[in-house]
Amino acid sequence: MGISFTVLSSGSTGNATVVRNEDTTLMIDAGLSAKRIDELLKERDVTGEEIDGILVTHEHSDHIKGLGAVARKYDLPIYANEKTWEAMEKSIGKIAEENRIVMDSGEVRDFGSLRVESFGISHDAAEPVAYCFYDGNEKLSVATDLGYMSDKVKQAISDSDVMVLESNHDIEMLRMGRYPWNIKRRILGDMGHLSNIAAGEALSELMTGDLKRTYLAHLSRDHNMMDLAKMTVRDSMEERGCFYKDSEFKLCDTYYDRPTPWDKVSEP
């Protein structure tokens, strides 16, 4: 079967992704209401009872809004590092002790035949992480809320077959937008969010024969548009000598209001 995934929702209004293989189904974050998560799961023919656990990237509300409710409803284990647990405990409510599992930043853990690697990222949270998933020779990386693309992150997600990568904002749209300057400065800073240009710069370095598709994720509804993001990322890559055909590599959409179709990492 290999790795399959669907991005249920992506953006500042809520984030959740489901990754599965033949014997394991995991959710990354639960940043929408439990009711909405159930609706999105149903759209992709998944039930809460099929989820084996929830991996948490960090404690911001758009990543944990429904975490406690979903975990309690389906008696699910939650995996997060200790600092994230400390930062989010008051927000998610009481969690059964057996479902409160510490997964350290940098830890590699096997969930059945699905191997998961956690790695640290730069963001204004207690100890934010992103994740890589492995099944045999397949590799999927899911990395958003990146203040910048560090060498450590590049190393972690290199040699991926498919990526879900942040392309949060168009820099000029953000600078001219309605946000107060302190928020703009946060987003643009090294602990904020990755711009379209920065996503393209990173992809130009990460493009190998293995990388087949990248889903542009966590787009700002105020300061970005999917078509603009894809165009800017492509232009940024080509400026750095990275040319490709859609038959060789594809930039794919994510949505804040509906899930992406199931994608099999093994598919060309």
From TrEMBL:
Superkingdom in the source lineage: Bacteria
Keywords: Hydrolase
SMART domains reported in the protein's UniProt record: Lactamase_B
Sample GO molecular function, one term: hydrolase activity
Reaction(s) the record says it catalyses: 3',5'-cyclic CMP + H2O = CMP + H(+); 3',5'-cyclic UMP + H2O = UMP + H(+)
The keyword Protein transport belongs to this UniProt entry's keyword annotation: no
Entry-linked InterPro entries: Metallo-B-lactamas, RibonucZ/Hydroxyglut_hydro, WalJ/YycJ-like
Pfam families recorded: Lactamase_B_2
Alphabetical list of PANTHER family matching this protein: EXODEOXYRIBONUCLEASE WALJ (PTHR47619:SF1), METALLO-HYDROLASE YYCJ-RELATED (PTHR47619)
Main function: Counteracts the endogenous Pycsar antiviral defense system. Phosphodiesterase that enables metal-dependent hydrolysis of host cyclic nucleotide Pycsar defense signals such as cCMP and cUMP.
Protein name: MBL fold metallo-hydrolase
